[in-house]
Amino acid sequence: MYSGIRKPSELLTPGVLAGLLARTLLRPGVNRAAVLRTALSEAREQPGTRRDLRRQRAPRP
Predict the structure, then answer these.
(1) What is the pLDDT of residues 20-50, one digit of tens each?
(2) What does the buried/exposed string (b/e) look like for 3-24 if buried means 16 or more CB atoms within 10 Å of the residue's CB?
(3) Is residue 27 classed as helix, strand or coil in its secondary structure?
(4) Is the pTM of this model over 0.70?
(5) Is 35 exposed, middle or buried (0-12, 13-18, 19+ CB in 10 A)?
(6) Phi-psi bin for 25: left (phi > 0), alpha (psi -120 to 50), beta?
(7) Strand residue runs (E) in 1-61
């Protein structure tokens, strides 16, 4: 990802992200409410972020 060989979207798929979230929620001592709040907030913002990134990459007329 950092070397530019692969895009973040190729590595951080929804399935991978869900697995990471599940593993985090299963760890002892984790503030599950805070983790879920953050995950939901990010999920709500993601469609807008994707749209903005597409606009930045789109060729300008």
Answers:
(1) 999 999 999 999 999 999 998 888 887 766 6
(2) eeeeeeeeeeeeeeeeeebeee
(3) coil
(4) no
(5) middle
(6) alpha
(7) none
